[in-house]
Amino acid sequence: MPTPGSGRGFLWLGLVLSSVCVALGCETQANSTTDALNILLIIVDDLRPSLGCYGDKLVRSPNIDQLASHSLLFQNAFAQQAVCAPSRVSFLTGRRPDTTRLYDFNSYWRVHAGNFSTIPQYFKENGYVTMSVGKVFHPGITSNHTDDSPYSWSFPPYHPSSEKYENTKTCRGPDGELHANLLCPVDVVDVPEGTLPDKQSTEQAIQLLEKMKTSASPFFLAVGYHKPHIPFRYPKEFQKLYPLENITLAPDSEVPDGLPPVAYNPWMDIRQREDVQALNISVPYGPIPVEFQRKIRQSYFASVSYLDTQVGRLLSALDDLQLANSTIVAFTSDHGRQSMDLVELVSLFPTLAGLAGLQVPPRCPVPSFHVELCREGKNLLKHFRFRDLEEDPYLPGNPRELIAYSQYPRPADFPQWNSDKPSLKDIKIMGYSIRTIDYRYTVWVGFNPDEFLANFSDIHAGELYFVDSDPLQDHNMYNDSQGGDLFQLLMP
Ligand SMILES: *[C@@H]1O[C@H](CO)[C@@H](O)[C@H](O)[C@H]1NC(C)=O
Ligand SMILES: *[C@@H]1O[C@H](CO)[C@@H](O)[C@H](O)[C@H]1NC(C)=O
Ligand SMILES: *[C@@H]1O[C@H](CO)[C@@H](O)[C@H](O)[C@H]1NC(C)=O
Ligand SMILES: *[C@@H]1O[C@H](CO)[C@@H](O)[C@H](O)[C@H]1NC(C)=O
Ligand SMILES: *[C@@H]1O[C@H](CO)[C@@H](O)[C@H](O)[C@H]1NC(C)=O
Ligand SMILES: *[C@@H]1O[C@H](CO)[C@@H](O)[C@H](O)[C@H]1NC(C)=O
């Protein structure tokens, strides 16, 4: 399903800096050398922090909130590119898109960039049984049509059989016919196979946990959920949690005046769905009819609650099998949107290795295309407070020194049919962003896809938003900051 980061596109107009919620749950002892700890890595597709644990008042996510309540919750975690395949390859190899050279859906890093080790591969090589359920790597050539088997996994990865119906006509419309809609609440007994992919993935993951209970080796189980990625195909009972009259609109649904056209995402993937097509929304700027905006938000929230019940089933099984006290649970999304500490998803690799007591891979040299095992992110181990380390209190780094980097490619200066997911050969411009605790600064610069080279003297547009005064990033200060003032503006 080659669909990129659509979850944010219709709720947040313009390029949204793919900040993602990551809750790294950890009920481990500091002494992890005696008993190897298991890893359960839960990856959710297109989840933004519409969750109770991130302060959302409307969304019901009791199971994820419960996990977060005894976990380290990162308030400012950023994906390195807000598109499924590049983001997953980036954080699963611990390298940035400019190193994996994957910005689209069309190449396998081992042959295209370098033979980079992955998180599961590293655990496998260190004696773990590694298992993949659902959407972990993006399917297709980006993981060599095998989810990077056999390098990353001990067994062939599991894919739910009902996955193939995600984009087919299974949504009953008001006309009584079946459609391939964006909004797709379903009666599960009526859909093909009488089940949904995330339900099947949960069941498979629980079976694997049961098998692992008696295993002599520790396990690394990655479970990739499909929802709340579009289409919003979820059991219809979850819609009742969100009566339409209770759904507010996005606080800033207008395209901001100062937004450079190159930054705008024309949400072409959403327009392809039958129910959206029928609205005949003008390309590229819309607007989406207000009542349909409400329905999109209702279905996104309902999909999140449905996902939450799956996470709840999985974590209950971990408890019931008495594996919870020996398993590190890491919960993340490939991208989405947020709103303390700034972290990047490329740091997942060194952090999980450190938490499990494995040797943390060394920092990558520049360039690192020839180095199989290294990491571009940071080991975030010092962020975790262990029960038996009370005397060593949690010491965050100086937030002003922290920076999260991300990037997004574009085929042209103005929105067009392939703006949200250009193929490598069509990339003409790369947007590079830095996010600090105070601001987000983006420059859109010329990019040569044959050489993988950005030209920072060829600036097409810029964006600058200050977090405190403009948390929703609606007032671009870039032009005000030109002529030598930029440096002053950015100084704390
Ligand atoms: C871990 O625990 C074992 C046994 O209790 C002890 O011998 C060892 O020194 C501990 N290691 C660390 C790093 O604390
Ligand atoms: C790539 O890495 C894998 C896993 O370490 C190894 O088996 C394979 O031989 C390597 N391939 C090349 C071309 O170096
Ligand atoms: C990718 O898959 C093909 C077909 O299974 C296989 O022949 C090839 O060796 C794989 N590539 C790598 C780098 O392992
Ligand atoms: C909808 O809003 C009303 C009024 O604020 C509130 O009483 C009701 O509980 C809400 N319904 C749900 C399902 O949240
Ligand atoms: C769609 O909208 C365009 C104007 O934006 C209009 O010209 C066209 O007739 C509309 N098509 C339908 C089928 O309503
Ligand atoms: C986890 O808990 C179970 C039962 O509650 C206990 O048998 C087991 O020894 C514990 N494991 C660890 C590593 O503490």
Topology:
Elements (H helix, E strand, L loop, with lengths): L18 E7 L12 E7 L17 H8 L1 E8 L5 H10 L3 H4 L8 H4 L6 H7 L3 E6 L36 E2 L5 E2 L3 E4 L10 H16 L6 E7 L6 E4 L32 H4 L2 H4 L12 H31 L6 E7 L8 E3 L3 H8 L48 E7 L18 E7 L3 E10 L4 E14 L19 H5 L2
Helix pairs in contact: 1-9, 6-9
Keywords for this structure?
alpha/beta, Alkaline Phosphatase, subunit A, binds 2-acetamido-2-deoxy-beta-D-glucopyranose, single chain, four-stranded antiparallel sheet
General description of the model:
The structure is a single chain. This protein has 492 residues and is of the alpha/beta class. The chain has helices at 62-69, 84-93, 97-100, 109-112, 119-125, 197-212, 268-271, 274-277, 290-320, 348-355, 486-490; strands at residues 19-25, 38-44, 71-78, 129-134, 171-172, 178-179, 183-186, 219-225, 232-235, 327-333, 342-344, 404-410, 429-435, 439-448, 453-466. It has 2 domains: 16-399, Alkaline Phosphatase, subunit A (3-Layer(aba) Sandwich); 400-490, no CATH class. It has 11 helices and 15 strands. The strands form 4 sheets. The protein has a 7-stranded mixed β-sheet with strand order 4-8-2-10-1-3-11, with helices on both faces. Strands 12-13-14-15 form a 4-stranded antiparallel β-sheet, with no helix packed on it. Strands 5-6 form a two-stranded antiparallel sheet. Strand 14 (439-448) and strand 15 form a beta hairpin. The termini are far apart. One 2-acetamido-2-deoxy-beta-D-glucopyranose binds next to loops. One 2-acetamido-2-deoxy-beta-D-glucopyranose (NAG) is lined by residues 35, 322, 325-326.
